[in-house]
Every structure is written in structure tokens, then in C-alpha cells.
Amino acid sequence: ERLPCNENECQRLPLRITYHQLSFPTNIQVPTDIFRMGPSSSIPGDDIHLSIISGNEEGYFTAKKVNTHSGIVTIDRPITEPKDILLTIQMQLFRHGAVNTFIAKLSLFVTADL
Fold first, then answer.
1. Backbone angles phi, psi at 11, to 5 degrees
2. Beta 16-25 vs 61-67: how paired, if at all?
3. What are residue 21's phi and psi, to 5 degrees?
4. Distance (Å, rounded) from C-alpha 54 to C-alpha 78?
5. For position 100, what pLDDT does the model report?
6. For the segment 59-93, what is each residue's pLDDT rounded down to a tens digit?
7. Angstrom distance (rounded) from CA 99 to CA 81
8. How far apart are CA 81 and CA 95, in angstroms?
9. Strand pairing report for 83-95 and 98-111
10. What is the pTM of this model?
11. What is the 3-state secondary structure (H, E, C) of the chain?
């Protein structure tokens, strides 16, 4: 978690960065939801925006909002060869007129179909 700060620059930094590792075979059915992200608690009036900010240069994935407090990352195109992919997902939480940012780093290991 981010340490408390009073300067504008550090207020824009993510509150939390989490790391996750997932593996799946090359023949995984698409579309498939692989990751869900949302705040640990929600209150009326919350809203989120979920986006993939890096690692999706080949366009395999999409991020979409499910409701006002969660979103998902989906594989939309078949990944036909084994590869390692590092996705960076950003969630912006809009609460009481403030915006807080959270980052998830997804290490994806696509393995050969056995």
C-alpha cells in the first residue's frame, strides 16, 4: 500500500499494486473470463473504470466493467502458441468525488496443449 502523502504528485500514484500468476493451455476456449477486479468494499455511489494499460499489444484481451463495483479481463482471441505475457490492469475507483487508482500485474503463462 502507498504511504500517506500530502503532495499532489504522490496522490496520483496507485493506492495498491497486486501481483497475480495464471497459467492456461493454448487451446483455452474463447471468450473466457480470467480475472475479476473490484474494491474490497463498495458503497452506494461508487463507480469504477477498468483498463489494460500494458501487455496487450497483440490484442488478445479486453477489460470491461461488469457493474459499478467490479470488472473483468477476458481472453477474446485464441492464443495459439506458448508464451509468457505480463498484463498491467488499472482500476480507477470513483468515490465521494475522489479518484483512487489500483494496479494489478498479471503474469500469464500460456503452455502447450498436451
1. -65, -25
2. unpaired
3. -125, 130
4. 19
5. 86
6. 999 999 998 888 999 999 999 999 999 999 999 98
7. 39
8. 41
9. antiparallel
10. 0.84
11. CCCCCCCHHHHCCCCEEEEEEEEEECCCCCCEEEEEECCCCCCCCCEEEEEEEECCCCCCEEEEEEECCEEEEEECCCCCCCEEEEEEEEEEEEECCEEEEEEEEEEEEEECCC
To the nearest 10°, report the CA torsion of 73, 74, 80, 81: 10
- Please say whether the beta carbons of 79 and 113 come within 8 A: no
C-alpha grid cell for residue 114?
A: 498436451
**Distance set, CA 68 to CA 5, 34, 46, 75 (Å):** 28, 19, 6, 22
Peptide bond into 31 cis (omega under 30): yes
